[in-house]
Amino acid sequence: MGDVDGLFERNEVNNELNNIRQWLAFNLGSWRDFAKCANVPYSTLERVARGTTKNPRLATYTKIRNEWMRRTGQIDDSNSVKEQ
Fold first, then answer.
1. What is the pTM of this model?
2. How many beta carbons lie within 10 A of that of residue 67, not counting itself?
3. What is the pLDDT of residues 48-79, one digit of tens each?
4. Burial 17-51, CB ≥16 within 10 A → b, else e
5. Alpha-carbon distances, residue 76 vs 9, 12, 34, 40, 72 (angstroms)
6. What is the DSSP string of 10-61?
7. Percent of residues, the chain, with pLDDT higher than 70
8. Is residue 82 part of a domain?
9. What integer pLDDT is reported at residue 72 of this predicted model?
10. At CA 13, angle to CA 63 and CA 21, rounded to 5?
11. Would you say 74 and 81 are in contact if contact means Cβ atoms under 8 Å apart?
């Protein structure tokens, strides 16, 4: 059963990464600021956004995800998830 759970987690991460990539595609001009706020190198963000890096490190993914969630209003500046 652990393999099935891992598969669902990977699919969820891949889906979320695709959502982040789509959002970044529409917000192309703010990538440098996004990278700075997410505390990841611009070149790394660029590779992730363009899909060159298919599976970024968990720490990198988490930083990008948290900044994306903050910018899309899903979490506040204290990284607390907002109730929906």
1. 0.73
2. 21
3. 988 898 888 889 999 999 999 998 888 876 65
4. beebeeebeeeeeeeeebbeebebeeebbeebbee
5. 24, 22, 16, 19, 10
6. HHHHHHHHHHHHHHHHHTGGGHHHHHHHHTS-HHHHHHHHHTSSSS--HHHH
7. 79
8. no
9. 87
10. 65
11. yes
45 pLDDT exceeds 90? yes
Residue reference for tokens 């968990």: 58
Q: Which domain holds residue 53?
A: 2-71
Tokens (6 digits) for 57: 């490190």
Token pair in block for residue 41: 């190198």
Q: Tokens 């490190």 — which residue?
A: 57
- pLDDT confidence band for 30 (50 / 70 / 90): confident
Which residue reads 């298919």 in tokens?
54
Structure tokens given for 1 = 């059963």
Asked whether residue 60 is domain-assigned, the answer is: yes
Domain total of the chain: 1
Q: Exposed, middle or buried, 68 (CB in 10 Å: 0-12/13-18/19+)?
A: buried
